[in-house]
Design goal:
2 domains, about 35% helix, 3 helices, 3 strands, alpha+beta
């Protein structure tokens, strides 16, 4: 079950789980129960969660390592070429 789920609080004593995958690895987060967002804000209570590292990667995967990151790098390279061409007069601005 992901996120905050009131239905499982009586059975598990927690408000639910969230499975998180990011550049550091795979994490399982257990959320403590709370009344409501409004009550937490009014009473200035923090919403507590406990995080367990399931899998930690040896080397972080960054945006630049993904297909989207490679496309962004190509676009940056194209834009840098365009800027350099404009600056050295190869491309002239049209009004």
């Amino acid at each position: 079950m992901g996120g905050f789920s009131r239905a499982y609080q009586k059975e598990t004593g927690i408000a639910g789980y969230t499975l998180v995958y990011n550049s550091y690895g795979l994490l399982l987060v257990a959320h403590e129960p709370f009344e409501s967002t409004e009550a937490a804000i009014k009473k200035e209570n923090d919403i507590h969660s406990e995080t367990v590292v399931v899998t930690r990667v040896n080397e972080r995967r960054l945006v630049g390592d993904t297909d989207a990151g490679r496309k962004l790098k190509e676009q940056i390279k194209d834009l840098e070429w365009l800027l350099a061409s404009y600056r050295n007069g190869q491309i002239i601005e049209k009004l």
